[in-house]
Amino acid sequence: MPKKYIYLIITYIAMQLSGALALPFIKQIENPEMFSVGWSVATFALALIVSIYFLRDEVSDFFQSEQKQIGTIILWSVLGFILVFITQIVAVLIETFVFGIKPGSQNTMDLMNIARQAPIFIIIISVLGPILEELVFRKAIFGSLHKRMNFFFAALLSGVIFAAVHMDFSHLLTYTAIGMVFAFLYVETKRIIVPIIAHMAINTYAVIGQLSIDPEQIEEQLKQLEQLQLIIIGGY
Questions:
Q1: Contact 35, 26 (CB under 8 A)
Q2: Whole-number Cα distances in Å, 53 to 56, 57, 64, 103, 149
Q3: Residue 27: strand, helix, or coil
Q4: What count of other Cβ atoms lies within 10 Å of the Cβ of residue 228?
Q5: pTM of the predicted protein model
Q6: Which residues belong to the active site?
Q7: What whole-number distance in Å separates Cα of residue 171 and Cα of residue 92?
Q8: Going by fewer Cβ within 10 Å, which terminus of the chain is more open, N or C?
Q9: Which residues lie closer than 8 Å to 99 by C-beta, 6 or more apart?
Q10: Contact of 156 with 180, CB cutoff 8 Å
Q11: What are the pLDDT digits (tens) for 78-137?
């Protein structure tokens, strides 16, 4: 693995663990929730700036290229969004009706609750997070693995790591499957910008969908899906 990718991964890990540095200050602040959100936005933004610095040669090559293939990028990004959307639905249905896993991601619900209280947090969900995750999990990790093994195993392994980082292990299948689709987009287009755009689009779609519905309605929909799950699995 090139050193710049190692630095990229280290930067991402440092960003994820940086919250520990804020703990001594939180107790002394009147509004710790808003401080935590501000800290997250700042550290994500800083991590992205540092990551782009490490990849500055590749970024420069893209913008200096006379064949950027903007039309192809847009087409594949739209296709990628559709593929991820379908994959997510299929994975959730398998989790729900085959493995009996309760519908609804706690990770997503927690993020949406934060976004409702502090809308600026949406920038992490829709922009900063997707860019960083694609640079780390697809470009650095998947890209390095794919040089040593075939696509399926490289995509599967990097997808599992991607899923584990989200700390929502009951929905490991969904996150892994989505990660594999992003890896497919990267391989097919040879441009990391495509899975980045698709990732940003699916996250933004989820944000709009979640925030446009009252939490009570979401809870009621999940309960109805759980009842349907019991009927199908239980056979009554």
A1: yes
A2: 5, 8, 16, 40, 28
A3: coil
A4: 13
A5: 0.86
A6: 133, 166
A7: 8
A8: C
A9: 173
A10: yes
A11: 999 999 999 999 998 898 888 888 766 777 777 888 888 889 999 999 999 999 999 999
